[in-house]
C-alpha cells in the first residue's frame, strides 16, 4: 500500500483500545480522549479486541464505550485522512468497514454505551452495535463533518436506513445534522437514555441480564442472526437453545462394525407420521459470500426423494456470484492485516473445535435436513454421518497446531529450513451421497492449514451445507474465509475455471473428475480427486460365514448403495457359494425400503428420480446380459408416496466382464461372482478400472495379508466392511482418483512447502 505519510508513526506503542472482561461482558473502550478518533492503529487494536471478545467462551455480551467523559467517539481522524494518499484512504475505509461488519455479525450481543458526543464515524460505530444506550445530556449524535460525496464513509451509516427508513436516513446523511439524545431516541437511532449518575454501572447491569444464568446467551446470538438475515428459526431448534441437551457423538462407524445407536430414546412419535411432515422446517437457500447471506436471481428446487415433493428453493450461483465469492476468499487470504492472517494456528484449532461443538449441539436438526434432502435413513444421518462430522472437525482442530516445516542440515555456512504454508483459496466441490460429511473432510484440513474456501454442495443436497455455513458464522469464522455457492455443474465449472482459486478438492464421479482435471490445467491448479468405485468384497470358504453375510449386506446396502466404496462386486469361493447366497438373499429380502425419517428404517429413498432411473436401467442391463436376478429388482412405493424407492437387488451368476460388474451403479444393486482359488480372485478383483476399496473375509491371517497386498485399492478391510476414522487416510488408486483425505495426509494437499536459505557466512 503506497502512502505519502505514515499515519501510524508513533502510535503503535499507544494503547488506543482498552479491553477487559467483567462477569461475562467484554468491554471495549476507545481510549483516545477527548474525541476518541480512530486511525489505522486504533482500527487494528479495535479489530483485535473484537476477535478476542468473540472467541472468548466466557464473554456473552460485547460493550463499546469511549474513554473520558466528552466523546463516545468522533470517528475517523479527519486530519489524518486529509494527509494520506487516496490508495491508503481507500484501504483504510475498506478495513474500517470490515471491522464494523465483523462487529455487526458477531453472534454475541453488542451494546454501545454512548457516554458522550457520538458523531461522524462515531455514529457509524454506534450503528454497528445492536443496542445503543446514551448518557443523559452527555452530548450530540449525528454527522456534522459530512461533505456531500464523502458518504457512505466507512459503511456504518448505511445501517441507518434499517433503523429510520430510507428517506429519513438520506436526510440525516445529506444534511449532516446533529441531534440531542432525546431527539435520537424519538428517531429510533438509540434505544434508551440513562441518568448521568451511575451510567456505566447501570449499562453493565443491563448487559449482564443477557449473560448466563440470567438468559440463554446462545439464543441471543441466534435471535440476532435470524433478525439480521431474515431467516426463521425452526421452533425445535429454538427450543434446543433453551438448554435441551443434544446428542453426544458415539463411536458410530459405517460397516459391519454396525453403528452403535446412542442410548438416547429415538423419539418414535415424532417420526411415525409420514415423510413430508418436517418440510416446514426447511428454509430457502441463499449464498454465503463474505460473511453475508445473499440472494440470487436464478433458483432451483431441492426435492425430498422420499416424497418427490419440493422442499425449498435454492439459489443457482452464476459465474459472477462465484467471482464475488472467490474475491472475498482471496481478500480474506491475502489481507495481511485481516483477522484470518492474524489468527494463530492454535486459534484456528479453537475455531474448528467450536464449529464441531455447534454441529454436535445441532445434530438432530442437521441429521433431519440430511435425510429430508438425500433420502438416507435418519439412523445413518444421526448416528453415523453427523457424529463423524464432529469427529473430523475435532481431529483437524487438534492437527492445526501440528503443521510445521523442518530444519535441514546442508552447508556449514547456511541455515536451511522449510515452511508449510497454506495453498491459498481452495474450491471444494461436494457430491450428494454424504453431503455434510464429505464437506467436513475438506473444510477441516482447509481451515486447519489456514486456507480460505469457496465450497459448492451438490445441487441435490445443499441444505446441510447451508446450515453449516450459519454455524460457521456463529463459531466466529471471519467473513470471506468460508463462502458457500450453491448450484449445479455450471457453478462447479465456474469454480474450476476461476484463476483466483489455487486448488480444487473434488469428490464425485470419475467422468466429472476427468473434466475437472482438463479444465484445471489451464490455470495450473492443484487438484485432488475422490472418485467412483466398484469395490470387490472377497469371501473365502474359511471365513465366518454369518459375519461375512452381514458384511456383504452392509457393504452394498448401507447408504442405499450410493456409497463410493460400496462392496458392489461380491466374490464368493465356490465351495460355500450356495449356502452364502441363500443367507444373503434371506437378509436382503427383510430389508425393505421404508420412511427414511423412521428410526427403524435401514433402506431409504434413492437420491433423485434421475439416479433411480439410472439404477433401474442397470437392473434391466443385468437381466439382458444374462445375470440371474435373485432378489429385488423393482421400484416400490412406501406408504403410497411418490418417492424414489428401489428394493435391495442381488444378481447371481454374474461374469466379471458384464457391465453390471464393471461399471459403478451407485445404488442398491449387488453383483455376485464365484471363484475357485486365490490367484484367480486377485486377478478378477483387480480387473476393473476402479481402485477405491476392497475387503477380504478369511480366518487365515497369512492369506488375508497376502491378498490385501495384491489388491490395487486405497483401502482394504479384513473381516469387516466400511470402517472409517478421521485419523486414517482415504482415497483411490486408478480411476478412483488421487490424493488422500482424512488423517494427517490431507495436510499435504492444503499446503505448499517453501524452502528458505539463510547465508550465515
Ligand atoms: P457428480 O460428479 O455428478 O457431481 C459431484 C459434484 O460435482 C456436484 O457438486 C456437481 O454439481 C459438481 N459437478 C458436476 N459437473 C461438474 C463440472 N463439469 N465441473 C465442476 N463441478 C461439476 O457426482 P455425484 O453424482 O454427485 O456423486 C456420485 C459420485 O461421487 C459417484 O461416482 C461416487 O462414487 C463418487 N463419490 C466418491 C467418493 C470418494 O471418496 N471417492 C465419495 C463419495 C462419492
Helix vs. strand class: alpha/beta
Strand content: 15-25%
Sheet having the most strands: 7 strands, mixed
Number of strands: 36
How do the strands of the widest beta sheet line up side by side?
A: 26-29-30-25-24-32-33
The global form is elongated
N/C terminus separation: 34 Å
- Helical stretch tally: 27
- Evaluate the radius of gyration: 29 Å
Outline the structure in words:
It is built from 27 helices and 36 strands. The longest helix has 22 residues, at 378-399. The chain is of the alpha/beta class. Strands 26-29-30-25-24-32-33 form a seven-stranded mixed β-sheet, with helices on both faces. Helix 1 runs parallel beside helix 3 and helix 21 (545-557) crosses helix 22. Helix 20 links the parallel strand 22 and strand 23. It is elongated and about 95 Å long. The model is unreliable at 1-6, 148-152 and 232-280 (pLDDT under 50). Residues 429-433, 438, 456, 458-459, 488-489, 492-493, 496, 507-509, 512, 515-516, 530-533, 564, 664, 666, 692, 732, 736-737 line the site of nicotinamide-adenine-dinucleotide.
Amino acid at each position: 500500500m503506497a502512502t505519502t505519510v505514515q499515519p501510524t508513526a508513533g502510535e503503535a506503542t499507544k494503547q488506543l483500545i482498552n479491553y477487559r472482561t467483567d462477569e461475562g461482558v467484554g468491554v471495549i473502550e476507545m481510549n483516545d480522549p477527548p474525541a476518541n478518533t480512530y486511525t489505522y492503529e486504533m482500527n487494528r487494536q479495535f479489530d483485535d479486541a473484537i476477535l478476542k471478545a468473540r472467541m472468548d467462551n466466557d464473554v456473552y455480551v460485547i460493550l463499546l464505550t469511549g474513554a473520558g467523559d466528552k466523546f463516545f467517539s468522533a470517528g475517523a481522524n479527519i486530519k489524518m485522512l486529509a494527509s494520506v494518499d487516496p490508495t491508503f484512504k481507500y484501504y483504510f475505509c475498506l478495513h474500517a468497514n470490515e471491522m464494523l461488519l465483523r462487529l455487526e455479525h458477531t453472534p454475541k450481543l453488542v451494546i454501545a454505551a454512548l457516554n458522550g458526543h457520538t458523531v461522524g464515524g462515531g455514529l457509524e460505530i454506534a450503528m454497528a452495535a445492536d443496542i445503543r444506550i446514551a448518557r443523559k445530556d452527555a452530548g450530540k449524535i449525528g454527522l456534522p463533518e459530512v461533505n456531500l460525496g464523502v458518504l457512505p464513509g466507512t459503511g456504518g451509516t448505511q445501517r441507518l436506513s434499517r433503523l429510520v427508513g430510507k428517506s429519513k436516513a438520506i436526510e440525516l446523511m445529506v444534511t449532516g445534522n446533529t441531534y440531542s439524545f432525546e431527539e435520537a431516541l424519538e428517531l429510533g437511532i438509540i434505544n434508551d437514555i440513562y441518568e448521568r449518575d451511575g451510567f456505566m454501572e447501570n449499562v453493565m447491569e443491563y448487559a449482564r441480564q443477557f449473560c448466563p444464568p440470567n438468559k440463554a446467551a446462545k439464543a441471543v446470538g441466534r435471535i440476532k442472526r435470524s433478525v439480521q438475515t431474515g431467516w426463521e428459526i425452526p421452533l425445535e431448534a429454538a427450543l434446543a437453545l433453551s438448554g435441551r441437551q443434544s446428542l453426544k457423538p458415539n463411536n458410530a462407524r459405517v460397516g459391519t462394525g454396525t453403528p452403535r445407536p446412542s442410548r438416547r430414546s429415538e423419539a418414535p412419535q415424532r417420526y411415525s407420521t409420514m415423510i413430508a411432515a418436517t418440510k416446514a422446517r426447511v428454509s430457502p437457500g441463499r449464498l454465503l459470500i463474505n460473511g453475508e447471506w445473499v440472494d440470487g436471481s436464478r433458483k432451483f428446487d431441492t426435492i425430498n426423494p422420499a416424497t418427490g415433493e419440493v422442499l425449498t428453493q435454492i439459489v443457482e450461483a452464476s459465474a459472477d456470484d462465484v467471482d464475488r465469492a472467490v474475491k472475498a476468499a482471496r481478500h480474506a487470504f491475502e489481507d495481511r492485516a485481516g483477522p484470518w492472517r492474524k489468527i494463530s494456528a492454535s486459534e484456528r484449532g479453537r475455531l474448528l473445535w467450536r464449529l464441531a461443538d455447534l454441529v454436535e449441539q445441532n445434530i438432530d436438526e442437521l441429521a433431519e435436513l440430511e435425510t429430508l434432502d438425500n433420502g438416507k435413513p435418519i439412523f445413518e444421518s444421526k448416528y453415523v454421518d453427523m457424529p463423524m462430522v464432529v469427529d473430523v472437525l475435532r481431529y483437524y482442530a487438534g492437527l492445526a497446531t501440528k503443521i510445521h516445516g523442518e530444519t535441514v542440515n546442508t552447508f556449514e555456512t547456511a541455515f536451511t529450513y522449510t515452511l508449510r504454508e497454506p495453498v491459498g483459496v481452495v474450491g471444494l466441490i461436494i457430491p450428494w451421497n454424504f453431503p455434510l460429511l464429505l464437506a467436513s473432510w475438506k473444510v477441516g484440513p482447509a481451515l486447519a492449514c489456514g486456507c480460505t474456501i469457496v465450497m459448492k454442495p451438490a445441487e441435490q443436497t445443499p441444505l446441510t451445507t447451508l446450515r453449516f455455513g450459519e454455524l460457521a458464522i456463529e463459531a466466529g469464522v471471519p467473513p470471506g474465509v468460508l463462502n458457500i455457492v450453491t448450484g449445479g455443474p455450471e457453478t462447479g465449472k465456474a469454480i474450476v475455471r476461476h484463476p483466483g482459486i489455487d486448488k480444487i478438492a473434488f469428490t464425485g464421479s470419475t467422468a466429472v473428475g476427468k473434466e475437472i482435471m482438463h479444465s484445471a490445467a489451464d490455470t495450473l491448479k492443484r487438484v485432488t480427486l475422490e472418485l467412483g468405485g466398484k469395490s470387490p468384497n472377497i469371501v473365502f470358504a474359511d471365513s465366518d460365514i454369518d459375519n461375512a453375510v452381514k458384511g456383504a449386506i452392509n457393504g452394498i446396502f448401507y447408504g442405499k448403495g450410493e456409497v463410493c466404496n460400496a462392496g458392489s462386486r461380491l466374490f464368493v469361493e465356490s465351495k460355500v457359494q450356495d449356502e452364502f447366497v441363500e443367507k444373503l438373499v434371506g437378509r436382503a429380502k427383510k430389508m425393505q425400503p421404508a420412511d427414511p425419517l423412521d428410526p427403524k428404517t435401514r433402506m431409504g429413498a434413492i437420491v433423485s428420480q434421475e439416479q433411480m432411473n439410472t439404477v433401474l436401467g442397470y437392473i434391466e442391463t443385468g437381466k439382458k446380459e444374462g445375470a440371474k436376478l435373485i432378489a429385488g429388482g423393482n421400484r416400490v412405493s412406501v406408504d403410497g408416496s411418490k418417492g424414489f424407492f428401489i428394493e435391495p437387488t442381488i444378481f447371481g451368476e454374474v461374469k466379471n466382464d458384464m457391465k453390471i460388474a464393471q461399471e459403478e451403479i451407485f445404488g442398491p444393486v449387488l453383483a455376485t461372482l464365484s471363484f475357485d482359488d486365490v490367484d484367480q480372485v486377485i486377478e478378477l478383483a483387480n480387473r476393473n478400472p476402479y481402485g477405491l476399496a476392497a475387503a477380504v473375509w478369511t480366518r487365515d491371517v497369512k492369506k488375508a495379508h497376502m491378498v490385501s497386498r495384491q489388491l490395487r485399492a486405497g483401502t482394504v478391510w479384513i473381516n469387516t466392511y466400511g470402517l472409517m476414522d478421521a485419523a486414517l487416510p482415504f482415497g483411490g488408486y486408478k480411476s478412483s482418483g488421487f490424493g488422500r483425505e482424512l488423517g494427517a495426509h490431507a495436510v499435504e494437499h492444503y499446503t505448499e512447502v517453501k524452502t528458505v536459505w539463510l547465508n550465515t557466512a
